[in-house]
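for ur thesis appendix - ATP-binding cassette sub-family G member 8. copy paste whatever u need, i formatted it the way the template wanted (i think)
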Amino acid sequence: MSTLNLNNVSYSVKSGLKKKGAQKIIINDLTMEMRSGEMLAIIGSSGSGKTTILNMIAGRLGKGSVMGEILYNGEVRNPKKFKNILSYVEQDDNLNPYLTVRETIVYMAKLKLDSRKISTEEKVEKVNRYLDEMKLSGFKDSLVGSVETRGISGGEKKRTGIAAKLLTNPKILLLDEPTTGLDSNTAYSVIKLLKDFTTSKDVITISTIHQPNYKTFSLFDKVLLLSLGGIVYSGPISEAEKYFTDLGFKIPEYENPADFYSKIVSIDYGSEVGYLKSIARIERLKFKWAECGYKLKESDQELFNFDFNRSPSFDDSASVNVEDYDSIISSSSIEISRPSSNKIKWNNRWYPEMKILLERAWLIQIRERSFMISFFAISIAAMFGLGFTFYNSNGFHRSVQDITGLVFLLTLYLMLLIALPLLLILNGELENMKRERLLRLYRVSTYMVSLSLTMLPVVWASNFIMITGIYFIDKFQLVFYKYVLFIIIFSTTIICSFAFALAALAVAPNFETASIFAPLLLAFFGVFGGNLVNLNSIPNVLQWMKYISYFYYTYAGILKNQLTGLTYDCSLEPGAECYNTGEEVLVALEITISIWKCILLNFIIASIFFAVAYYGIRYRKRQKYLWI
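the 3d part is after this line
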């Protein structure tokens, strides 16, 4: 039989913005024991620390201070081993709406189950078994769906999320509000399935729950009542009624015990008097549990002489000194303990893992077509808009002015109108990745490669149509190798813009910061691109900017490719300054860099952006968690 013990566990966070702000106690001196085959319900008002306990057990507390010990089978937990036997079903499990129920569980199996120990056939068999056990077989080929996309019901989504987390045969199962948003019958069916799994697989199941009905509540073996960070009761549900009755808290006839217990641990915010009375009641209940636990004497009952049938405050005579209460709450001393780093043993080799992610990403992208449609639509609109704006270019001055202006706008388009929309799109992708990264499903490198191989082809193909159309509409040189170079140079620009957006999100602390500084940096790239300002007139202290601007290399490369080999008839504009060849124009524009050097340097810049993105995602975006 497995056991999970929390011994004198406390957790606090800094209150206020100042570095030396007071510590706010979230969990204070929590002690409890769970055994395999048991289900524990954690009940408490909002902010009582229910989810914090789950995060503490799972090792997902990001900030704050923690002390005490959590033991598994009487021993200090090893982070790597413990996380392999634990599954955590979050309140919002964020299932992808464009995968079917079966696909959701299959991809989880492919990524989460060790391919060295379990064959693909065994994984599929396991998926089918859990589809049956969680009553999902009847709609396994239905899309999960979302608000915008029709799909399965809320209860079916809950069961799908749970089934995906049960694939690893966890010894400990944590669930955060698994019945939220469900009607009473659906909530009961979900908890009943969990009860059957818990008893049949000898699992320790711990679930926060909000206002369960009597049938649902009775499925649990134990209950933990929390309020103001402390325990009001922890033990078998069958003994809870006697415990509170002994204290004078008798459950009214026909009232749901779970609702009654929720009243006990709730704070009355309706009035100042009610607030103080409820604080007094809760503090006394916490004190009594800490002092005596379940062994109460009859002489102690007079401390709890309350009438429970009148209001949530339950007491008209109680008084409390709020300053004394604050001193109690702020008197705890907390220490931080962080796990030692453990090298992760991945479930798949690099290439099979990348292949799974790539397959899943393309499947989602094909079904969710807004990304492709929007990029192709804006590219076609830009092709006609820019193409016909510069359609008639006659004479030397008009021709040179139009070609430099068109190349500048094309480069600006491929920089701004790729990078900026991708900031929003990639941010959503990275948020999903952060959730899956907690499960250690895949490497950052395989994720980045699969993401690039999914999105870049769409971005490239849509803009290929645009730049090809403009090439012929605006009569660029009809020489095959020049057309190929034109496509290659602009392709490097597309790659740079994609990598830049990914890098900006990876190193910025949040999306808002990235969306502010990314356009600013891109604007600097444009200023030092060679069209708006003569680069030789720029102060030496800023000259280096052009060498990191992929805008400059694109602009210079395209003009070098287009103007080389051109001749102009200066007789069409007598008396005006005129150059006979395109090479003379390039000298006047001070473009001396070779085309292949421009291509190479753009690839180098893109590689640097990708490297920065990898570093940012792997190290800067990695959350450090507290561990005890």
